[in-house]
Specification:
Elements (H helix, E strand, L loop, with lengths): L16 H9 L19 H4 L2 E2 L13 H9 L4 H13 L2 H20 L3 E5 L4 E6 L20 H7 L3 H4 L3 H21 L16 H22 L1 H5 L1 H24 L11 H11 L4 H11 L1 H6 L9 H9 L7
Antiparallel strand pairs: 1-3, 2-3
Helix pairs in contact: 3-5, 4-5, 5-8, 8-9, 8-11, 9-11, 9-12
Length: 327
């Protein structure tokens, strides 16, 4: 898989009855069985309103694991969606195929949601729709220099114009990278090829890509807080933060599995340096503080941040009588 992609979740989700109820009540299908989900329970799940999208076809292939099959079957059979399915199948790079099909699926679900909405597919039929923060339109989120990896130039420099068209385009890419690493891990676990036309093919930067994009997702959340504070403090802003937190849990979970496979990890220094820089570099101090205060101390601990000191968010929640994790 090439590092520079063209722009265009095993599911890590949340445990708890709130998710089951939300998914079961959404259009198009039923909830994913709770025993198949892996992220520890948090209160933020109640806000996300996770919806389900049914399979559109019975597409399958002997070279596909269950994750790639899932994405392929959710794509409609009409127009550009069928064209994209055929094109990326013929190219043979199954990890990139799943990445690009995620983009097309996100676009399809967004079009169904209506104007001012963006949707993000998280595997096994589950997706979230968010309202676009108009105050962020045209703004390219600031990423601390120590967290800028091999994808930075493509997405935040060369294709920065996407911020004008869709302020949440970085989340579109982040979910696509989370999905494609999940595909790679699933393919390797099942003894399936990453590229059936080249059985010895490796994707050495796949695992690091999702880790790098996690910090770009954090930068986006911080930018919304700065440039669209009314949105950020609204119910929709809370849902945005919860989606960022959920996708961070997904990314950490699948990255930990991905780095065990040399085929998607070999020689990529990002797998160690990015987390080290996030935890220790001077230019990431503001991002660390934001994660603790706005995404929750459970995630901060998962990222290796010291949570012993009181945070602004914990004090604010105590005044409201709420448990951490709701915002």
């Amino acid at each position: 898989m090439a590092t520079a992609r063209k722009l265009t979740l095993s599911v890590c989700a949340i445990l708890g009855s709130a998710v089951t109820a939300a998914a079961a009540g959404a259009e198009g299908g039923s909830a994913v069985p709770i025993e198949r989900l892996s992220v520890r329970p948090t209160a933020f799940s109640r806000l996300l309103q996770i919806q389900t999208h049914p399979e559109q076809t019975h597409r399958s292939h002997e070279n596909w694991g269950s994750v790639l099959t899932d994405i392929a079957r959710r794509l409609p059979t009409t127009g550009t969606y069928q064209d994209a399915f055929i094109r990326y199948t013929r190219e043979g790079d199954l990890v990139t195929a799943g990445h690009e099909w995620t983009h097309f699926l996100n676009a399809y679900l967004s079009s169904r949601a209506g104007s001012g909405k963006s949707a993000f597919y998280m595997l096994e039929g589950r997706y979230v729709t968010l309202t676009i923060p108009d105050g962020l339109r045209g703004v390219v989120p600031h990423v601390p220099p120590s967290l800028r990896g091999v994808l930075y130039d493509l997405y935040l420099v060369q294709n920065s114009g996407n911020a004008q068209v869709d302020p949440l385009y970085l989340l579109d890419e982040w979910t696509a990278y989370a999905n494609d690493v999940t595909i790679a891990v699933d393919q390797l676990n099942r003894g399936k090829p990453l590229n059936p036309f080249n059985p010895t093919a490796i994707q050495p930067e796949a695992a690091g890509n999702v880790l790098e994009f996690m910090f770009y997702g954090f930068a986006l959340g911080m930018a919304v807080k700065q440039y669209d504070p009314a949105y950020y403090q609204s119910y929709e802003g809370r849902r945005l933060r919860d989606f960022i937190a959920l996708t961070a849990y997904r990314s950490l979970d699948i990255h930990a599995k991905g780095v065990r496979w040399r085929e998607i990890n070999r020689g990529d220094s990002r797998n160690t340096t990015l987390l080290s820089h996030f935890r220790n570099a001077a230019d990431t101090a503001a991002m660390r503080a934001w994660v603790k205060s706005d995404l929750g101390e459970d995630l901060a601990r998962r990222l290796g941040i010291d949570t012993s000191a009181p945070t602004e968010r914990r004090m604010a929640l105590s005044h409201q009588g709420q448990a951490p994790g709701l915002n």
